[in-house]
Amino acid sequence: MPRIVTTYREEAKKKVLDAALTVFKEKGYFKSTMEDIANRLGISKSAIYQYFDSKDQLLMALYTSGPENLRSQFSAASKRGLVATAKEVFDSMGTRENADLFADFLAEASRNPDLQKVLRDNIERFNAIVEDLVKERNPKMSPEEIERAHQVAAMMGLVFNGLASWLAIGVPDSEVKELWGKSVDMLLGPYETGIVPKARAR
């Protein structure tokens, strides 16, 4: 019985999160209410509070799940290659709706320490995912080359978030996707071919 209850709770929480994501994208985070989300689900607002105490908690939960969703996307498309997969990920995640929600998240995080921690954790997890993928493709890297791969992963994250900001301020999608593609080629391309960039001597 406990397992059935736990499974039901997890499924119910996922439905609430899915509804929240839809509402946040349609109305924007700041204009959305818990009542909007409840209406989307056809349930009472009090039912949502059984799983999430506030709208902030919903936002945190959505962004906390982001890196693992990213890892799943890479795993599902890994046979097509690291570079091609990275470009496909941006096609699915780098949308104007997601960018607008990310802008709302940053605005809210600027005054909410809990959201700031979620964002910092996401950055570290994103970097780890990209670094792991690079190491899988190039298992014989030296410690110095692994450190460089870590830096490349960090730069990928910076480019991704920067381009999301560009989308949020109205830069054309085609321009943003072209720049993402060039960045992927430049940063991940060498690891795809097996020609690992050498770390510079200090």
Summarize the structure in short.
The chain has ten helices and no strands. With 202 residues, the protein is an all-alpha fold.
Structure explained in plain terms:
By secondary structure, the chain is mainly alpha-helical. The chain is built from 10 helices and no strands. The chain folds into 2 domains: 1-53, Arc Repressor Mutant, subunit A (Orthogonal Bundle), CATH 1.10.10.60; 65-193, Tetracycline Repressor, domain 2. The termini are far apart.
SSE blueprint and pairings:
Blueprint: H1 2-27, H2 34-41, H3 45-48, H4 55-64, H5 66-77, H6 82-93, H7 96-109, H8 113-137, H9 143-168, H10 173-193
Helix pairs in contact: 1-2, 1-4, 4-8, 5-6, 5-8, 6-10, 7-8, 7-9, 8-9, 9-10
| Total DSSP E strands | 0
What helical percentage do the residues reach? over 70%
The CATH C-level name of the largest domain is Mainly Alpha
Radius of gyration, rounded? 19 Å
Proportion in β-strands? under 5%
| CATH-defined superfamily of the largest domain | Tetracycline Repressor, domain 2
- Give a quick account of the main beta sheet: strands, pairing sense, barrel closure: none
Distance between the termini: 60 Å
For the record, the count of structural domains works out to 2
